[in-house]
Amino acid sequence: MIRKSFCVAATCLALSIGLSSSASAAPGVGEAVYGATVEAGETEFEARYGRLTGGTADGADGLVLEVAHGFSKNFYGAALLKLGRDPGGSRTLEGVSIEGIAPLGRIDALKLDVALYGEYNANRGGPDEAETKLLLQHKQGGFDSRLNLVAVKPLASGAAVEFEYAASADWRLVGDIRGGFAAFGALGSTHDFLPRAEHYLGPVMKAELEHLPGKSELEIEAGYLFALSAARDETKGQIRLLLAWETHF
Questions:
Q1: CATH number for the domain including 234?
Q2: What SS3 string covers 156-207?
Q3: DSSP helix/strand/coil, 82
Q4: Contact predicate 82/15, CB 8 Å
């Protein structure tokens, strides 16, 4: 099942914002680490919030609201609405997008699920973007690790392809409570690969409240990521909070 540690089902659309022009563009702010499997028939409503703390970017944040649906075991579609705020500014809508995920299969020897993600971002104040991700997920017992390799192409003449990553690993601690870490960062572009860039790494905690009315469940994730490398030029880190309500209609 896709866990996004925050399309209306009938439309399979996504509303998302491009945060490339604001301080809240920091890797991980309002973002999720995607899993590589899909649960058919599941509808998910999710909110993801990230806020930078300390430094000149203190107070910059990003908020993502999403509704998603697993149309089959072979396709997941989502619609997101994202908003951003620079330090001292007001929160604004920064764009809309559509996204989809198609599982590609499983490498049994590695217990590794593989999926392909695609997204079209209609940004305000900048060129639209096409984004792809290779989603990798390994689950064994109470352990769950994920790696997303990201490529973003601004739809403007001569614009470079930008590369990023998102990763997480967590373990079942007790009951439905899990602990682990998450990491987000930039890898440069086709014009400048692997430069000194922004990276964030830190602990996260996750919990699930199951058997809610309507056979639904609520997922909660909270954490703090420390700024590393170029990210320390503007901030000390970022607070993360994700809430996801899942159900079958």
A1: 2.40.160.40
A2: CCCCCCEEEEEEEEEEEEECCEEEEEEEEEEEEECCCECCCCEEEEEEEEEE
A3: strand
A4: yes
Task: State the maximum Cα–Cα separation within the chain, in Å, rounded to a whole number.
Answer: 52
User: 3-class SS at 110?
Assistant: helix
Q: How many residues does the chain have?
A: 249
pTM: 0.89
Q: Is residue 181 part of a domain?
A: yes
Percent share of the chain, pLDDT over 90 = 84
pLDDT value of residue 62: 95
Domain with 230, as residue range(s), is 23-247
Torsion-angle region of 41 (φ positive above 0: left; ψ -120 to 50: alpha; else: beta): left
Residue 196 counted as domain residue: yes
Average pLDDT over residues 183-210: 97
Residue 14 pLDDT level (bands cut at 50, 70, 90): very low
Q: What is the pLDDT of residue 127?
A: 92
